[in-house]
Structures are given as C-alpha cells and as structure tokens.
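Troubleshooting: if your tokenizer reports a length mismatch, compare your output against this known-good record of 295 residues.
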Amino acid sequence: GTYCVVFYKNSSSTTKHYIMGVDNSNYAITYSSDGESSISVGYGDSDTYSLAYDEVQSKYLLITRGNSNNLRASWITSNGASAAPTVWADNTAFIANSIDPNLVYDSYNNKFVLTYHKHNGGTCDPTAVVLTYGSATSSPSKGTELELESITASKVRTTYVKGAKKFAIIRSGTSPIKIQLLTISGTTLSSFSTTTISNLDRNYIGIDAHKTDNRIVTVFRDDSSSPYRAKFNVYDVPAITSTITSENFIGFSKAAISDTASGNIAVIGNTTTLSSLTPGKKYFVKPDGTISLTA
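Known-good structure output:
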C-alpha cells in the first residue's frame, strides 16, 4: 500500500499524528491510531506545521510553530496503517522568534530547506536555512541562515526543482510578489536569481514544480477587480548542464588535484577503485562526494 502522515492539533493544543494508508489494489483507505508529540501548539492559524519526507532515513520531519513563536522539530516514523507512528519531539526552541515554517526535501543532496519569517525588530524577514539529519533522537543540524529580503513578508512558499537542482521560492509582503531561485552547496544556500512576477502584494500565493521538467507553476489571488480571481504563471528554471559524456569521461580522481597539477586517475574498469559496486551500472559523484546510481 501507499502511506502518508496526517497531523493535527487537538482541543488541548497537543500535536497528534496518524498514518493513513491507501490499498493500491482497491484504493480502500485505512489509518492507524494516533501518535502524539510533547510539543504544545498555542496558535490556531493554518501555518503552524510543515512536513516533508526524508527518502534516505524513511522518516518524516515535522516543523512546528510552538508557543512564543519558536519553531520545534519532530521525527515521525511510520509503522504502517495498523499501528501508531513512532514520534520523537524536541520541545526546546529549535529556531527562535520565527513563524510560518515551510519545509521541502532535496532528494539530490538528501537535505531539507526550511523557509520561515524571522522577527528582526520591526520586520518579519523571509529567511531560508539548510537542515541535515543527525539522528532520530535529535533536532536536525542547521546551516547558515540566508535572509531573502529585509521586509515584512506575509507568505513564503518553496518547492524543489529536481531537474535543475534548485529551490524555487515565491514570496509576498510589503513588496511585489517575487520568485527567487536558490542553489545549495553543503549547508549553505546562495541566491541564483530573483524575478518580480506581479506588482501586487498578496497573502494568497502558491508554487509547485513539475516532477520531470525544469518548470514551476505559481498562483496568486488577483484582487484588482471583482470578483477576485486566481492567476497562474509557468516558468522554466535554468538547468545545470555538463560537458561530460561517455566518450570523454575516463574515471575518478583518487585524491584532490589542484588546477594545472597532475595526479592519478582511477580509470573505468579499475576494479580496485571502490568496493561493493555493481558491474555494468553507471555511477555518479554527488556534490557531497558520495557515489550514487542517480544523477
């Protein structure tokens, strides 16, 4: 079957979770009993939670806006639709003085990117940070925060463009609606480009990426005329290209080599380069230095 996590806040402001399953043969819906975290949620707005799935750890990361405008982290592990999920929660302030979490997973680098509004005196600045998994009983590690703009933002929404290996963010506030592309290196985010898509300031915005094409779709509510209408835009995201082909690729360097210097290359077919590789498979080097079967 196919499973997903459903989470909600009960009447006593306690975070609850359960696993909902869909039987692929007859599409019948089943669900588990509740799992519960110790995080108390004192706010009733719809931006209290954000959830994403870690494909490597097979766990869900839940970011919760708790009391006193502090963000808190929980790891949720599915036990199928017949048993309550296992929940570990950190009730301390994971990120302080922040609201409106929006979490996405980078399947290429196996990292999360979290956007949120960070209180900085008189502004509520849109901010992004890289999160990495440490253990199932600790909050994820944080990279360096990137302030997207010094404004009072009303909404920030994020998606991951897999083919282009970039994060696309749509944001609005005390400025026009903008799309900002971010790249990731290690635990550091950098701004790639920023585009204004509307001179309107709107709370109602959304963004999503096509699963295979380097393309994003944005939506916002146009209040310039009555009745209000939703407006959609489609954008192509610049892709990362490479000149490497099966003809000009000879192998992997066995150590770091400086520019213009010489060094040893483990050529294709060298069976002593790495262990536990499958013959006949094509392998890729990822930005963190690990080897993967996917680009």
